[in-house]
Amino acid sequence: MAAGDDAGLGDNFRMARADSDGGDGVHLGRPDRGLSPSGGAHTWAGQARYCRMFSDLPSLVVDIEALEAAGDTGGLIDAARVWTGTGDDGEGAAGWPLFGQLIGHDITADRSPIGPHADVGALRNARSPELNLEMVYGDGPIGAPYLYDLRDPAKLLTGADGLDLPRNSQGIALIGDPRNDAHIFAAHLHLMLLHAHNGFVDRLRADGKAEGTLFDAARRTLTRHYQWIVVHDFLPRLVGSELVNDVMRRGGQFFSPAPGEACLPLEFADAAYRYGHSQIRNTYQLKPGGPVIPLFPALVGFGPIKPEHRVDLGQLFDLPGHTPAQRAKRIDGKLPASLIRLPQQITGDVEVDAYHSLAVRDLLRGTATNLPSGESVADAMGITPLTADQVGPGWAAGTPLWFYVLKEAQVFGHGDHLGPVGGRIVTEVLLGLLRADPDSYLSADPQWTPALPSREATSFELADLLIFAANQPAAR
Ligand code: HEM
After folding, report:
1. CATH, residue 455
2. How far is CA 190 from CA 166, 173, 311, in A?
3. Which residue, by CA, sits nearest to atom 23 of ligand 1?
4. Could you tell me if residue 23 is inside a domain?
């Protein structure tokens, strides 16, 4: 495809932006650039906070016991209640929600305990609201040296054989966000990002880039490829190109933070972006012809990846030379058994048994943060809400926003795409964060295009980045 100014990843790689305060004197919440030259990984200096897109709407008041009943084993949202073993395959490849999960981990981490009564004002986001691969780079080589390779400091550390994440002597992954080791698929995708960064270091070095600027240039290159994929590949598949183009053209109607002043909306973190929980399959095949394995407990992470659990990426994404990947589950208002009974390694010890259910947790988070109903958000957007028949029984007072987004995807998107409410929240937030980040390619260099080759002449896709990563000598 057409290449941007970093086409050869040579010396003409343009710096992201001019000065540190953008000329407006605003420093609050801006990245700390004090770690240069080799420590230039993005650090959010301000306190990342959550905010709201629809602060004027009344909270949905729901009975907590009813939520727990709907989300727990045997409840309305438990796919196992009706699952016959087939028939819930969607259109998209199984890897898309897994990549989507990593995007989520890049921008939101609410570490408050689960329960119906959160102190909403006290919630803090442990991630910066920027698509900056903080989950990969952490605090950079100076703030988080254990993420980097001492023998070649521009590179990220990988596991000894290049086939696993780097781990400490107790098997805990040395990565920027521990959630990326929660299951083997997240761990594999994270590993691909490490290899992609290291591959960019090699390319830049071969182009003669000065050693002192290699790390920053490789980080910026990978981050921009990732941001490009979010805009041009991930979002169009999830919500459709029309909506993406509309928000690109007109900006967000309900979320458009000023440069350097982004926050993460609770409607996104505690409802709409959790759509992906309904796209997780109950079972996965890791290799063509291999056994079909339930996600949990077998494929839980937080320890070295067993050789028999190494994933063939062609099972997750449609890649050239591979048979088509297995598909993501349809979004249908139901979660697979593995997520209705999350393993203890993921939930920790819980005081209420129902907190093992991710559906219960999704519903409780939404009510604890006083989210409005899906119907009232639809009204506020000028969209005709789903009817009671379309939403299904059980939500007389209004439908929790998260569940509404799932049902909307089922009704309007055949379970493959988000509907108008969920789609708009997700699109406006992801594009809004990119626009508010002065370092993103959309803000700093909108004409930028990926430097890596692509399979299709006109588009660069996630598959192209994965192929690049998987072909690095250290990855094989
Ligand atoms: C195997 C797959 C997955 C597992 C085991 C998983 C597990 C979890 C858990 C345990 C939480 C915390 C629940 C809570 O206490 O609030 C969570 C939160 C969340 N998940 Fe997932 N998830 C998975 C996939 C996904 C996918 C595919 C997406 C989206 C595409 C997603 C988006 C989110 C978001 C946005 C949050 C809120 C994060 C925060 O603000 O801290 N997850 N997930």
Report:
1. 1.10.640.10
2. 11, 11, 13
3. 277
4. no
425 vs 381: CA distance, rounded Å: 10
Is any ligand 1 atom within 6 A of the Cβ of residue 182?
Answer: yes
Residue with CA closest to ligand 1 atom 19: 274
- Residues in the chain, pLDDT under 50: 1-43, 45-46
Counting ligand 1 atoms within 8 A of each CB, the residue from 101, 123, 230, 329 with the most, and so the one to mutate, is 101
**97 close to ligand 1 (CB < 6 Angstrom):** yes
Distance CA(61)–CA(116), nearest Å, equals 11
Rounded to two decimals, what is the model's pTM?
Answer: 0.91
User: Tokens 């440069």 correspond to what residue?
Assistant: 259
Write down the residue that tokens 């100076």 correspond to. 142
Question: Domain for residue 374, yes or no?
Answer: yes
Please work out whether the CB of residue 301 comes within 6 Å of at least one atom of ligand 1.
no
**Quick check: CB of 346 below 6 Å from ligand 1?**
yes
Cβ(275)–Cβ(405) under 8 Å?
A: yes
Beta carbons of 194 and 158 less than 8 angstroms apart: yes
Residue 313 sits in which domain range?
Answer: 65-475
Q: State the Cα–Cα distance between residues 335 and 329, nearest whole angstrom.
A: 9
**Overall domain count for the chain:** 1
The predicted pLDDT at position 47 comes to 56
Segment 166-216, tens digit of pLDDT: 999 999 999 999 999 999 999 999 999 999 999 999 999 999 999 999 999
Q: Which among 102, 99, 90 is positioned nearest to 127, based on CA atoms? A: 102
Verify whether ligand 1 is closer than 6 Å to residue 426 (CB atom): no
Read off the tokens for 245: 């183009």
Question: So what's the pLDDT on residue 453?
Answer: 87
In a domain, 12, yes or no: no
| Arithmetic mean of pLDDT over the chain | 89
Q: Is 361 left (phi over 0), alpha (psi -120 to 50) or beta?
A: alpha
Scanning the structure block, which residue is given the tokens 């604890």? 368
Q: Cα–Cα distance between 350 and 366 in angstroms, integer?
A: 19
Q: Which helix (H) or strand (E) holds 376?
A: helix 374-381
